[in-house]
Write a structure and sequence with these properties.
- With 163 residues, the chain is an alpha+beta fold.
- It has helices at residues 3-16, 24-35, 40-50, 54-63, 83-87, 90-101, 144-161, and strands at 75-80, 115-120, 132-134, 137-139.
- A hairpin with a 2-residue loop joins strand 3 (132-134) and strand 4.
- Helix 1 packs parallel to helix 3 (40-50) and helix 6 packs parallel to helix 7.
- The longest helix has 18 residues, at 144-161.
Length: 163
């Protein structure tokens, strides 16, 4: 999908809300649900269509943690770091996945664009700890090894589907 097509779709979403400022968050949520993040171009178009400053749109996008200004991978991995998971060693899982994905610094998405690694305060599955999700599917009682094996199987699945 070209960036022109994306911006056309962003415009449709904004128009579907009647270009009303009070719908800013809902508009941003719909765009993120469709594209997994909010691009600079999308934020600028929203500001223009709603006749508000770009800084205001950016401030909303950066204030709420669920909005992302970075493109995300096809697979969104969330490692729980809540108390139960932390006590049961979720940090080594996160560290093992960062190493496997060769992420450095603040980088969250693998260089092939396939995986995005995040932490969450609690997934609400404490009895299954340590737990992680991949695209909202829950994987209980994980270890660093089983987490890497899961990602390897997803990567192989992608390779065979594109072969």
């Amino acid at each position: 999908m070209s960036s022109k097509d994306v911006l056309r779709r962003v415009e449709e979403i904004v128009d579907s809300y009647g270009c009303r400022r009070e719908n800013l968050i809902a508009i941003m949520q719909d765009i993120q649900n469709e594209y997994k993040y909010l691009s600079t171009e999308a934020l600028e178009l929203i500001a223009d269509k709603l006749d508000i400053g770009v800084a205001k749109v950016y401030s909303v996008a950066t204030f709420y943690e669920n909005f992302s200004l970075e493109a995300k991978g096809k697979y969104i991995i969330k490692v729980c770091c809540g108390t139960a998971c932390h006590v049961r060693k979720s940090q080594p899982i996160y560290d093992g996945l960062r190493e496997y994905l060769k992420l450095s610094g603040k980088q969250k998405t693998s260089s092939d664009g396939l995986f995005t690694l995040e932490t969450v305060a609690c997934l609400g599955a404490c009895g299954l700890s340590p737990v992680m999700t991949v695209n909202d599917e829950v994987y209980p009682k994980m270890t660093p090894e089983s987490a890497v094996e899961l990602l390897e199987s997803l990567r192989k699945k992608e390779e065979t589907s594109h072969a």
